[in-house]
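Summary: Need help interpreting a holo structure output

Steps to reproduce:
1. Submit the protein chain below together with the SMILES for nicotinamide-adenine-dinucleotide.
2. Request a joint structure prediction with the ligand placed.
3. Inspect the structure token block that comes back.

Expected: a single structure record containing both the chain and the bound molecule.
Actual: see attached output.

Input attached:
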Amino acid sequence: MNNMETPTTTIAVITGGADGLGLALGTRLVRSGRRVALWDLNNEKLQAAAAILGERVITQIVDVTDPVATKTAADALAAAHGGIDILVNCAGITGRTNLKSHQVELADFERVMRINVTGSLLAFQAVIPHMLQRNYGRVLNIASIAGKEGNAGMLAYSTSKAAVIGMTKVQGKDYAETGVRINALAPAVIHTAMVAAMPETQVHYMTDKIPLKRCGTLDEFAAMAEFIVSEQNSFCTGFTFDLSGGRAVY
Ligand SMILES: NC(=O)c1ccc[n+]([C@@H]2O[C@H](COP(=O)([O-])OP(=O)(O)OC[C@H]3O[C@@H](n4cnc5c(N)ncnc54)[C@H](O)[C@@H]3O)[C@@H](O)[C@H]2O)c1
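--- attached output ---
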């Protein structure tokens, strides 16, 4: 199989795309002429995004933890648009934070793992057959600096993001001899609804560790993510890109 394929573009899927980082990247891709499908649970935010972004955007209410919903949505998109060439796994939650590890409740831990890890896998499994069929694809899993470094007070979240990084390493190798590239991105703090919902002390702990002494912006995220899912990113797979204002230098 040729691992340098670059076919014409079809459609990009962004999970958790109704808000935050996913919406910022979706907006950027639409403005550069791409068609984008936003998958999310929040219909109100999906409709607001569709109203702003116009006809290049398709919105689908998809719970990424549901294997039937993810497969049904992916198959319908591929049938309507001739394939899927980009998947960005952005759906994610922090769960309860600012807790010592012994205080973490099992139900909360399992919910975070199910959305952040299992959800990323299910979306991937729904989309990858369509990429392999055309021997081209770009997958981006949104991890976190928490997965590289371990943020105190965030056991469930940090564990889930470390798992996303591990999963990306395996997926990159599994499909390296095809035209599909699979990478992750590990941001530090970027102001979104997810961060706004966290306790102030937890957010202060994270921003204080950033050498640039500021949060990242949605534009900075979208610019890097756009490159990672582009055709130009052709000789990199299984890697976790950094977006941490100097916190991680590896
Ligand atoms: N904002 C940051 O500073 C930051 C830093 C590092 C990593 N991240 C990661 O980036 C991703 C996006 O974060 P964000 O800050 O944009 O969050 P956000 O809360 O603004 O957006 C996340 C979206 O995911 C959706 N979602 C949640 N559960 C879902 C499910 N089961 N199925 C489908 N959609 C679901 C939500 O409705 C929401 O629209 C997350 O994986 C997060 O862990 C964020």
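--- end attachment ---

Reviewer comment: The longest helix spans residues 106-134. The pocket of nicotinamide-adenine-dinucleotide is lined by residues 15-16, 18-22, 39-42, 45, 62-65, 90-93, 115, 119, 142, 144, 187, 189-190, 192-195 (CB under 6 Å).
Status: needs-info
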